[in-house]
Design a protein that fits this description.
Blueprint lengths: L1 H26 L9 E7 L2 E5 L4 E3 L2 E2 L4 E4 L2 E8 L6 E3 L6 E4 L4 E4 L5 E4 L5 E2 L5 E2 L18 E4 L4 E5 L7 E5 L2 E3 L7 E4 L2 E3 L8 E3 L8 E4 L1 E3 L5 H33 L3
Antiparallel strand pairs: 1-6, 2-5, 3-4, 7-21, 8-20, 9-10, 11-12, 13-14, 14-15, 16-19, 17-18
Helix pairs in contact: 1-2
Length: about 260
């Protein structure tokens, strides 16, 4: 009886984690470049009363054995890096990666982090920076007298200084990819850091093999499907409720045992 109490408790804890993941997905439904997560679970150890295949008599073995599971635990929370829907902004500094890859930016600590959010801006020095002021790497500096800026599919950045002037190339946007993007460590602020699970960063140019192209004037939207998340939330809520009823039923059975005379 006590086992069922603990087993149902692990189920409630797992569904609470599931609900936390779903709520974070829903909260970021409008976050540019956000990648939804999915909680994955695995069963815990088993109490084995009889091994499968154990001898039960002369020339007879148990076909299944007797094993009682002891609950569930969260095995992983996996990021889904499927491409989000484009959002047209017509802002010349908004850039979407159409395909695989990440923008490398430098954090205030001097580390290189990676992001899918291409909502770039200019800092006081004219450098292209992300929403938190982290400069794009390698740095691209836009002169103050620029009248127009163009970002090609291959990442080449060109500017126009006057009405009759020819476009001048001022830099090249580079992308970085990973063997296992779900293994990246999430830092918040749309930033990721490599880990032993993600593999080392692989640098390349937009449009090359295994790298997407760039699209100016648009952003990658969140890949959260609000309808799917609502269905997942209802399923998690019902599973949590069912586990709580198991605890109530086990408690009632214990009451019956305690009332025996």
């Amino acid at each position: 009886m006590i086992k069922s109490l603990n087993t149902a408790a692990t189920g409630m804890q797992a569904q609470q984690t599931n609900m936390d993941v779903i709520s974070n997905n829903i909260a970021n439904v409008s976050t540019s470049g956000f990648k939804k997560s999915r909680a994955e679970f695995e069963d815990l150890m088993y109490e084995t009363v009889k091994e499968p295949g154990a001898t039960t008599g002369l020339n007879a073995v148990s076909p299944t054995g007797v094993q009682t599971g002891l609950g569930v635990k969260t095995a992983a929370i996996q990021k889904d890096f499927a491409l989000g829907a484009p959002k047209i902004t017509r802002n010349p500094l908004d850039v979407q990666i159409e395909g695989r890859g990440f923008f490398p930016v430098q954090t205030p600590e001097g580390q290189i982090a990676y992001t899918r959010n291409g909502a770039f801006k200019k800092d006081p020095q004219g450098r292209l920076v992300d929403q938190n002021g982290n400069p794009l790497q390698p740095e691209i500096v836009v002169p103050p007298n620029t009248s127009g800026i163009s970002i090609a599919e291959n990442g080449e950045v060109a500017i126009i200084l006057g009405v009759n002037s020819e476009p001048q190339t001022i830099g090249q946007i580079q992308l970085v990819n990973f063997v296992n993007p779900p293994g990246l460590k999430s830092l918040g602020k749309n930033l990721f850091m490599p880990s032993r699970a993600s593999g080392a960063p692989i640098q390349g140019l937009p449009g090359q093999e295994n790298f997407g192209t760039l699209a100016q004037g648009q952003l990658e939207g969140s890949n959260v499907n609000i309808v799917d998340e609502m269905v997942n939330m209802i399923s998690a809520q019902r599973a949590y409720e069912t586990n709580s009823k198991v605890i109530q039923a086990a408690d009632q059975m214990l009451q019956y045992v305690n009332s025996l005379r």
